[in-house]
Amino acid sequence: MWFVRFVSSSIGKKAIMALSGLMLLLFLCSHAAGNATIYMSRAVFQGYADELHSHPLIVLIFSSGIFLVFLVHICVGILLFLQNRQTAASRYSVSTRVVANPLASKTMPYSGLCILVFVLVHVSGFAFGPEHEPIAETVKRLLGHFFYGLFYLVAFAALALHLSHGFWSMLQTFGVNHPRYNPLIAKSTLVVPLFFLLLFGGIALYFMTGIGASF
Amino acid sequence: MSTIDLTLQIWRQKDSDSQGHLQIYTLGGISTDMSFLEMLDVLNEKLTKEGKDPVAFDHDCREGICGMCGSVINGVAHGPEKETTLCQLHMRNFKNGDVLVIEPFRSRAFPIRKDLIVDRSAFDRIIQSGGYVSVNTGGTPDGNAVPIPAKTAELAMDAAACIGCGACVAACPNGAAMLFTSAKVSQLCLLPQGKTERKARALAMVATMDEEGFGYCSNARECEAVCPKGISISNIARMNREYLKAVLLEG
Amino acid sequence: MELTSRTPSGPLAEKWDNHRFTNKLVNPANRRKYKIIVVGTGLAGASASATLAEQGYEVHTFCIQDSPRRAHSIAAQGGINAAKNYQNDGDSIHRLFYDTIKGGDFRAREANVYRLAQVSNNIIDQCVAQGVPFAREYGGTLANRSFGGAQVSRTFYARGQTGQQLLLGAYSALSRQIHKGGVKMYPRREMMDLVIVDGRARGIVTRNLISGTLENHAADAVILATGGYGNAYFLSTNAMASNVTASWRAHKQGAGFANPCFVQIHPTCIPVHGDYQSKLTLMSESLRNDGRVWVPLAADDKRPPSAIPDAERDYYLENKYPSFGNLVPRDVASRNAKEQCDRGKGVGSTGLAVYLDFADAIKRDGQATILKKYGNLFQMYEKITASNPLNEPMMIYPAVHYTMGGLWVDYDLMTTIPGLFAIGECNFSDHGANRLGASALMQGLADGYFIIATSVAHYLGTNALGAVSISDPQFLTIQKNVNDRLHRLLRNSTAGPTGKVTVDEIHKELGKLLWDNCGMARNRQGLEKALEQIPGIRETFWDKVFIPGIGGELNQSLERAGRVADFLEFGEIMVRDALTREESCGCHLREESQTEEHEAKRDDANFSHVSVWEYKGDDETPAMHKEPLTFEFVTPSQRSYK
Fold first, then answer.
1. Helix spans in C104-253 (H)
2. 3-state secondary structure chain A
3. How far apart are CA B19 and CA C62, in angstroms?
4. CB–CB of C278 and B58 under 8 A?
5. Interchain proximity A96–B103, CB inside 8 Å
6. Is residue C59 part of a domain?
7. Contacting partners of chain B (3+ CB pairs under 8 A)
8. Given B48, B131, B152, which is nearest C175 (Cβ)?
């Protein structure tokens, strides 16, 4: 069947990685938009959160959808990682990377793992936090801990690293590669991760440094 | 003419079934005008005179076009010079006292036959599965019957310049053959003559590539960086498009 | 030895048609019952294998490299000729025919060359249909360039990699047939000998280069597409594995060898720079369009080129040939370079080079224009020599490049052994005494795509062939001979390397002897000296050669030794052929045959023939037969470039 053929092929698996990555990226964008309200005021942020949770069905559908996409991205990613390791583990006694900045592409599975750990901690802290605490209060309480905040910063750095390869890689897998647009893609590959790092990292810094104590 | 002294660590392996190891050789008075393979010739002549087994390595045209030669020098396929095959790499790229670790192109799909010689027939099988236009000899239309824009012909030529040396596989952290396969898929899907079979070709060649045991592309770009003919990964993007279109619509 | 050329009668333009009509055919349903062996996968071998398999024959194809895609046709740079007249500049089949036969100095058969020109157009169509990315004009039509001094633009090209693209086209057609099961491909096999049963070629013995085992292969016909023998000279522009073994083995089994002394020496190669040198690299001839060739006026002038003022330079080509100047044909340019170096005026560390200077062209046209034309060549030169031609003159020297001689074949490309065909560079047929630029690719593909299938069908259709098996006594005997020979090669090696010689040392010695005495310019005295010395080198080789390792494994020293052993025998008929050809012709100057101005003098009265050598036994002098060349449609003229 064509779908089995698609999923079992090398390019098919990569396409699934890219597609799920794209969906996660879109999710990240909407999450970022919501979180950005923190920069406006506590009331706006709390209002956004309350509005969102007044539609439990939408939240349920979205979060289970995202959970599935996450699961696919992780499972296929691990599968590819293991299969590639089988074909290529420690082949040379001297191994050299010729490409200028190979760090991001070399560490994709590991930065991905960091993000996974983060998501688990994040979800258990926020989605399953004390029942009647307003979300704004939870944010302040949790990120107010210096090490909790630091953990978040590290995770955001890992996310940025992951995206700095993932974003370009996703487009390449979809076949988006054109001399006219490649410079733009190259710039976006820097700008997109940096954007998320600043936006999310700013929030963590805001609370962990104590500036957000009055939030 | 200046000369240099070198320490070589060369992979020695009797045959496919034996264990291999790195063997150390010292070689003095190497002219910097020599090509890398001529340096190996000098070593082999010396080993022969000592009654030892010379290092087996593949080579033929020694002009950088047949794609027969290739080894990994200090972790880099075809050595340190950009867009250069091993036979065109000259010893002036090295310094006196350098230690060179010379290993075969390694990949699960390229079994080692002896020393630095590997079996790249998997590449042939990829081409056999669809890397052609199905046209018999004779009865073809006039060469000018279908105009091809100069730019398209140039793009196709960029891809067609692949010499099938296998450096892309050797350099890929996953041992993937995407650059090789995509070069042929790209060349033929760009030209009107190759369009009739483009979907079947993409499906068949990717399937064979997977069956042969090459790894999965993780867009590390190492292939492009070592390719002696400067084949661009834009060809991989083009193959991805071709494949996705084919598998979603006709697979 | 009977030399029947089977040249068809009738008007020149109708010969090929008539011949195809009179030739017998094989019914499509019967073709699968015939098995054909093709040795070699260059342009000729790959195209022949694909074409025969498409027609339904069972084809078994062998190549020495790890893949059929690597044959040395791949290295051809310039282009391929065809009489398409796309440029509307007066080209025609007849003009391509005339240029080719004249370029060959009237030492080829008219009918063969005409057929070559006729099918040249089909080759371009075929290659375009296969997806060969030829250069195009902006409007999308095929681009052409003028090449090798031709007065019309008839050369089709794909950057500087035309050979590669054409070969990959033929390789793709071959790959398709391998996939379909029409061709069984045997890579990494070396043909060790030919097997003859009842006077017909019925098989070959090969050595598996990975395992070292000898294998017998039987067939109904054998096609050799094994290339030229330029590596007899050790240094040449040929690939390292190019050799004469397959042709020589066929010769020893009874195939006539034609014109072995016709060797083309290309004038613009990068000079030799040390004893370690393994091969020579060709630089495109187009460089002479703008470069000026010169040497210092005084012998042994060791000053750097920039320190030699114009008045103390000898622009010898411009001085000697005012009308053609630096654009004289390959043979004249090569010969004069050697002459200057022989007078001690050569430059570079070895004194075996002349300057090719772009300073004036750069002054005239500007650096940008020159770089646009020759940028990639300058880059290639700099990569090899570490010297930039923009700043100092290039150094060039002639090198062995192509061999016009080869196995004698009739119009059907069949050798004097029934059932044994020779195509591509390995036969002698189309280039006479000199090959024009962009003609080698044309001939290889013409033979493979458009000629050989007709010949094979005729042979199979007219001969009742009995069944043979690889365990027949003839096969077993040949395999035993091959095995014995390998053992003889290895017999010195058990006692260790002390007091022995290596394969390369012997090959270099033979190469130097041939280069010095049977190269661009030859004379009786030198040739006789070479003839005297070759047996001695051969003896040293067999008595003292040291080959590490054993026969039953991958052993590259043994492979080379087998090839050098054949070059050592072959070199002798090369020299003998040069001795008997007491005329200057095509690529070579016979010093006894010169005009008063020291130019080559052809002798049509006595030498308008193909010299065909017959093997008579190991200790016997080979016999020379002549196939007279008659010219019905063209009148041989003398070349003059003054």
1. 110-130, 162-180, 245-252
2. CHHHHHHHCHHHHHHHHHHHHHHHHHHHHHHHHHHHHHHCCHHHHHHHHHHHHCCHHHHHHHHHHHHHHHHHHHHHHHHHHHHHHHHHCCCCCCCCCCCCCCHHHHCHHHHHHHHHHHHHHHHHHHCCCCCCCCHHHHHHHHHHCHHHHHHHHHHHHHHHHHHHHHHHHHHHHHCCCCCCCHHHHHHHHHHHHHHHHHHHHHHHHHHHCCHHHHC
3. 30
4. no
5. no
6. no
7. A, C
8. B131
- Please answer whether residues C114 and C266 qualify as being in contact, where contact means their C-beta atoms are separated by less than 8 angstroms: no
pLDDT of residue A2: 87
Handedness of CA C607, C613, C614, C616 (dihedral sign): positive
For residues C247 and C570, give the distance between their C-alpha atoms in angstroms, rounded to a whole number: 10
Phi, psi of C417 (to 5 degrees): -95, 120
Read off the pLDDT of residues C330-355 as tens digits, 9 standing for 90 and up.
888 999 999 999 999 999 988 999 99
Which of chain A's residues have a Cβ under 8 Å away from the Cβ of B251? 2, 5-6
| Cα–Cα distance, C526 to C514 (Å, whole number) | 10
Touching pair B, A by Cβ (3+ pairs < 8 Å): yes
Question: Residue C639 pLDDT > 90, yes or no?
Answer: no
| Domain presence at residue C23 | no
Task: Give the neighbours of chain A: at least 3 Cβ pairs within 8 Å.
Answer: B
User: By the CB < 8 Å criterion, does A1 face chain B?
Assistant: no
- DSSP lists the bridge partners of residue B11 as B22
Closest CA to C318 of C295, C342, C347, C285: C295
Alpha helices in C35-134 (DSSP H): 43-55, 93-103, 110-130
| Domain of B207, in residue numbers | 120-249
Contact (Cβ atoms closer than 8 angstroms) between residue B149 and residue B221: no
B77 plus B140 within the same structural domain: no
Q: What is the pLDDT of residues C284-310, one digit of tens each?
A: 888 888 999 999 999 999 999 999 999
Instruction: Answer yes or no: do B189 and B219 share one domain.
Output: yes
What is d(CA C262, CA A35) in angstroms, rounded to the nearest whole number?
A: 83
Q: The complex's ipTM?
A: 0.98
Residue range(s) defining the domain that contains residue C389: 268-397
Total number of residues shown for chain A: 215
**Interface mutation vs chain B, best among C51, C67, C85, most B CBs within 10 Å:** C67
Percent of residues, chain C, with pLDDT higher than 70: 100
pTM: 0.96
Q: Which residues of C are catalytic?
A: 330
Residue with tokens 């027969």: B68
Closest CA to A114 of A151, A145, A142, A78: A151
Q: Would you kindly state where each structural domain of chain A is located, as residue ranges? A: 2-86+103-214
CB atoms within 10 A of CB A110: 13
In a domain, B143, yes or no: yes
Residues of B in contact with C166 (CB under 8 A): none
Q: Which segments within B64-160 are labelled E, that is strand?
A: 72-73, 76-77, 99-103, 112-114, 117-118
Number of domains chain C is built from: 2
Structure tokens at C33: 């019952």
What pLDDT is recorded for position A88? Answer: 62
pLDDT tens-digit readout, C611-624: 999 999 998 999 99
Q: What Cα–Cα distance (Å) separates residue B71 from each residue in A117, B94, B173, C459?
A: 41, 16, 16, 46
Among positive and negative, which fits the CA dihedral C481, C486, C487, C492? positive
Instruction: Supply the CATH number for residue C282's domain.
Output: 3.90.700.10
> Coil, strand or helix: which one is C19?
helix
Residue ending a domain, among B103, B132, B151, is B103
Each residue's pLDDT tens digit, C366-398: 999 888 888 888 988 998 999 999 999 999 999
Cα R_g (chain B), whole angstroms: 20
- Integer Cα distance of C639 and C105 in angstroms: 8
Instruction: Specify the CATH class of A2-86+103-214 in words.
Output: mainly alpha
Cβ atoms of C336 and C324 within 8 Å: the answer is no
Residue owning tokens 């690529």 = C587
